[in-house]
Specification:
This protein has 569 residues and is an alpha+beta fold. The chain is built from 17 helices and 23 strands. It is globular and about 80 Å long.
């Protein structure tokens, strides 16, 4: 005789309470939601083999239709279609979570949330509870070969380590993670504090590059699908105080046919955006920029130089703040998504065809997104910005990778800090409180032709000169490097061949990397230019020579490769 619904639910509660038998609940939380494959709803109304087997195990004597089974689903059991997929997560947080899962799988009682683990006062005894050989997973960039081509991809890698080495690595990673979490929280606290006490005639400009929009048609031929044109989108959210001293915001989206997300494009965007800010408030005194920190876009010497001389270039003072890596999510992400969704809906409805950036901009201006102002920056405007930047002779900022706050002081001088600070002196004073970690540096090479009239404090300039004259405090250089030489350099736990572009007087060098193609090398279609620490330079090598009929591939001399492998190991 079939069981009633009350009997079925009673049996479910008893099994859950006693924790016996075959449980069909998965207890792992995903975004605070429990889910179960039992509750999967099949649109066609057919019983799947998996569902039938699960019901047979839990209630072997019950005959139940799929419709009744789905109708009786408890509210806290979610359909798989309701479960979100997390993406764009922080690498440091995820790698720490993977280490905690490893500890959990070896019988060590630890929370799976890395920040909850960090708050624990009593750390577990790893020495006694871990096996001699520890298996764990980490997100890493690895080199893979597909269809004869070698490329770097980010994947979860299964690793083995001796217990002692694993514990040392875990403790070092935990220490780095604690500093990472501190900067994450500090930067979010600072932007919240800044919004709470933002003075009149000050603007907060939060911005980020969105993922490029791929132009598409409602009906398109096959070759068009594989040759889509992209459009650059750069959302901007501006906060300011109105006449009633209440915080307001205005949204902008910059549309461009310039696909390089570089300092050149950023400069072109600033030239287009700042006049719009002056339309909102003619007496604007200060702009507080907030962005994430990729060195190819916002955190580089060209942007630092722009901030240092922002008053002379744009007529207004500026500060630039950077969120911690992997934690730059904000209103700009939603703004970019809304704009692309509007374009997709227009294409699907057949109202328009978007084939290039001009079509996208025209559609956006005529759309019903009245709360968003759209600006267009052409590739020609970016070329003009490139000419301006190329005329500069800028000295790199010492410790670029640590910078999270930059204040422009004029005369190519900046004050920078590892975290933002908006205390009364740092925020309202002429100079920041140097006891709070601020450092001063001049970005102006002595041969720079930029003429700037400044009334800044002479003591500040003298202090910057003293900083520049100090020898590096990091590891001494063991290799004499010259611009234009070829070197082998470490990057992301492997080595590459690179050409030196510039050398910093401190501890960094600007290089352009080659791509590895099995045993050969090739210049990439887009330049891979990075600032790296001098300590990451393995050795100097002879300039690679072209090989093959096409003369596109280059090879190293055997003695150079042998030297690299010996030193790298």
């Amino acid at each position: 005789m079939p069981l009633s619904r009350a009997e079925i639910q009673k049996g479910y509660r008893e099994r859950k309470k006693a924790k016996e038998g075959e449980s069909y609940l998965r207890k792992e939380r995903t975004r605070r939601m429990k889910y179960c494959s039992l509750s999967r709803v099949v649109n066609q109304g057919k019983k799947t083999k998996k569902q039938t087997e699960c019901r047979a195990k839990v209630h072997p004597n019950v005959e139940l239709s799929l419709a009744t089974f789905c109708r009786m689903r408890p509210k806290h059991i979610l359909n798989t279609s309701m479960i979100s997929r997390s993406c764009c997560l922080c690498t440091k947080h995820q790698n720490m979570a993977l280490l905690l899962r490893c500890l959990k799988s070896n019988g060590i009682q630890v929370p799976l949330n890395p920040e909850s683990f960090m708050k624990q006062t009593d750390q577990p005894n790893l020495q006694d509870k871990l096996p001699d050989d520890v298996k764990y997973s980490q997100w890493k960039r690895i080199e893979v070969t597909e269809k004869g081509k070698t490329k770097n991809v980010t994947r979860i890698v299964e690793l083995n380590a001796e217990k002692k080495l694993f514990i040392e690595s875990f403790q070092a990673q935990l220490k780095e993670f604690e500093s990472h979490v501190f900067r994450v929280r500090r930067q979010y606290q600072e932007i919240k504090s800044l919004k709470d006490k933002l003075p009149k005639h000050h603007f907060i400009v939060q911005m980020d590059f969105a993922e490029n929009y791929s132009c598409k048609s409602n009906e398109e031929i096959q070759s068009a699908y594989w040759n889509m044109t992209s459009v650059t989108l750069h959302p901007i959210v501006v906060y300011f105080m109105n006449t009633d001293m209440k915080l307001e915001h205005q949204s902008f989206v910059v549309v461009s046919d310039e696909l390089s997300h570089s300092a050149i494009t950023v400069h072109g965007i600033l030239e287009k955006m700042i006049p719009k800010l002056k339309e909102i408030d003619e007496d604007v005194e200060m702009i507080h920029y907030w962005t994430d920190g990729p060195t190819s876009q916002y955190r580089n010497k060209q942007v630092f130089f722009t901030i240092a001389n922002h008053k002379e270039i744009f007529g207004v003072q500026a500060r630039w703040n950077y969120f911690e890596a992997g934690h730059g999510k904000g209103p700009c992400d939603g703004l970019g998504g809304t704009t692309k969704r509007m374009a997709d809906e227009a294409v699907r409805s057949g109202r328009t065809v978007i084939q290039h950036a001009d079509d996208f901009f025209k559609l956006a201006v005529e759309s019903n997104l009245k709360g968003i102002k759209f600006l267009f920056v052409s590739s020609d405007e970016c070329k003009s910005a490139a000419n301006i930047l190329s005329a500069r002779n800028v000295k790199p900022l010492q410790g670029t990778f640590k910078v999270h706050a930059v204040i422009g002081k004029g005369n190519s001088i900046v004050a920078w800090n590892e975290v933002s600070c908006h205390c009364d002196q740092c925020f309202l004073g002429d100079n920041p409180n140097f006891d709070h970690g601020w450092k001063v540096q001049s970005l102006n090479n002595r041969t720079n032709n930029l003429k700037i009239n400044t009334g800044e404090d002479d003591k500040l300039a003298e202090e910057a000169d003293k900083v520049m004259e100090q020898p590096p405090t990091t590891n001494e250089r063991k290799i004499d490097l010259i611009d234009g030489e070829y070197v082998a350099a470490k990057y992301d736990r492997t080595w590459y061949i690179a050409k030196i572009l510039q050398i910093d007087d401190s501890d960094e060098v600007e290089v352009t990397f080659m791509e590895r193609k099995k045993q050969l090398f090739q210049w990439p279609a887009r330049e891979n230019i990075l600032w790296i620490p001098v300590t990451d330079v393995i050795c100097k090598v002879t300039e690679p020579v072209y090989t093959g009929k096409s003369k596109r591939m280059l090879k190293l001399l055997p003695e150079d490769k042998e030297k690299i492998l010996n030193l790298f190991q």
